[in-house]
Specification:
With 451 residues, the protein is of the alpha+beta class. The protein has two domains: 284 residues, no CATH class; 103 residues, no CATH class. 67% of the residues lie in helices and 8% in strands. The chain contains 14 helices and five strands. A five-stranded antiparallel sheet has the order 3-2-1-4-5. A hairpin with an 8-residue loop joins β2 and β3. The radius of gyration is 32 Å and the shape is elongated. It starts with 14 loop residues before the first helix and ends with a helix. InterPro entries: YibE_F (IPR012507).
Length: 451
């Protein structure tokens, strides 16, 4: 155990508590393993024929060639004026841009300027070759400069000169550095406990990548897949991060109960709200690729998995709070521990619910802005499927948190005091014993004093 577990086993659990915990955990672990075996994906998952992604570096930028420029701009200029005038304007702008990029691409790049780039391919079968690719342009198009690291999409079985196009910037390096900073910060603050938490995070990612996603793509029922995956993540991460103990087991049981309630509420309101999933572009596209997928079930599965992270935070905090309160005041009763833990839990709920709702609102912010621009009323915006899905996720997740606080606090108070109830009562009797014995002694000596 680490220093963070200083008071964790200060009060040994009674045989009754251990029996209860094991009676819940053993079936849970066995059912989870059985679910992983039964639902483990087999066979070939459906796939989409997509272009290969390769890394490249822009080594030069210039205006589109005469033929390429005319062909690429004709579609834009047909509706706005003569093709010749459109080409002249594009050429003039391109010349000006060419002057800007000749010095290293430092000049401005108007969104309507047609450019092409010489890129050096850094991965894939054509690694080391230089090719010319069109640069995305138009309103809102990203601005590229010489030296930018980009990602190209390759269309197979197409001549080299028209095989590649720029898709986006490379982001691997900044994300890697951010991940390293995060890992170092966690370990510096929590030391070995933080390292264990990072290992638990890695296990969660492995479960999602190798079980959850393939099983969903294989057409398995999304709700059982989500429940089994969430249970595996919950068991692995809680014990890895917080150690194998009665306290962690109580937190796990509280999480299980709260997650079950969250899943039931999610299933109910997903059905009552009649979500179709067709307004989510990714879900709609996946549904077209594989008609066997239960799109509504995918929404529910996402709700269950998303709620797990917030729920285990709440349950671990509540069990830790009750254990520390019990260690600080060994004479406190279960009722007092529950009341004190609930006071902490109310503060936690107030902060966490707000965080959860704001997270879902933040994810829908561009959509809310679109509704605002179009003049859609607040009621209409909230009841539209895109926003209503986030509302259901936020409120159902919040109800799960609200349920987790009293459930976990009550379980923790019972567990931490079950083993030492008799000792606490005995301590109180010993404390009251001398005073009770003193009173008869005083009564006996009083008459004998003769005063």
């Amino acid at each position: 155990m680490t220093g963070a577990h200083l008071h964790q086993e200060a009060t040994p659990a009674s045989p009754r508590v251990r029996a209860f915990v094991l009676s819940v955990l053993i079936p849970l672990i066995m059912l989870t393993i059985a679910g992983l075996v039964v639902l483990w994906p087999s066979g070939e998952a459906p796939s989409i024929e997509a272009g290969d992604r390769v890394d490249a570096e822009i080594i030069d930028l210039r205006p589109c060639a005469a033929a390429g420029g005319a062909s690429s701009q004709s579609g834009d200029t047909d509706s706005g004026g003569a093709e010749g005038s459109g080409g002249t304007e594009g050429g003039g702008a391109g010349d000006e841009e060419g002057g800007g990029t000749g010095d290293g691409g430092g000049g401005g790049q108007p969104g309507t300027t047609c450019l092409e780039a010489d890129v050096l391919i850094e991965s894939g079968p054509d690694e080391g070759l230089e090719v010319v690719v069109p640069v995305p342009y138009g309103v809102g198009a990203p601005q590229f400069e010489i030296g930018d690291k980009v990602v190209l999409t390759a269309t197979r079985d197409v001549p080299l000169e028209s095989r590649y196009e720029i898709t986006e910037f490379q982001r691997g390096t900044p994300l890697l550095w951010l991940g390293i900073i995060f890992a170092v910060a966690v370990v510096l603050l929590s030391r070995w406990k933080g390292l264990a938490a990072l290992v638990g995070l890695g296990i969660s990612v492995l479960i999602i990548v190798f079980f959850l996603l393939p099983a969903l793509l294989a057409g398995q029922n999304p709700l059982p897949v989500a429940v089994v995956g969430a249970s595996a993540i919950m068991i692995a991460t809680l014990y890895m991060s917080h150690g194998v103990s009665i306290r962690t087991s109580v937190a796990l049981i509280g999480t299980l109960i709260s997650l079950t309630l969250t899943g039931l509420l999610g299933a109910l309101f997903t059905e009552l709200s009649q979500f179709t999933g067709l307004f989510d572009e990714s879900l709609a596209y996946i549904g077209l690729v594989d008609a066997e997928l239960d799109v509504r079930g995918l929404l529910l599965a996402g709700l269950v998995v998303g709620a797990l992270g917030v729920l285990d935070d709440t349950t671990v905090t509540q069990t830790a709070t009750v254990w520390e309160l019990a260690a600080a005041d060994p004479t406190s009763s279960r009722r007092k521990l529950f009341a004190s833990g609930m006071r902490v839990g109310r503060e936690h709920v107030a902060a966490t619910v707000n965080t959860l709702v704001l997270a879902y609102v933040g994810a829908s912010l561009p959509l809310l802005m679109l509704f605002s621009v179009t003049g859609m009323g607040m009621t209409d915006a909230l009841t539209s499927e895109q926003v209503a899905q986030e509302v259901v996720r936020g409120l159902v997740g919040s109800l799960g948190i609200i349920a987790a606080v009293p459930v976990t606090t009550g379980l923790a108070a019972l567990a931490v005091r079950q083993g030492d109830t008799h000792r606490v009562a005995g301590r109180r009797r010993r404390r009251g014993g001398p005073s009770g014995a003193d009173r008869p002694a005083t009564a006996e000596t009083g008459p004998g004093s003769g005063t």
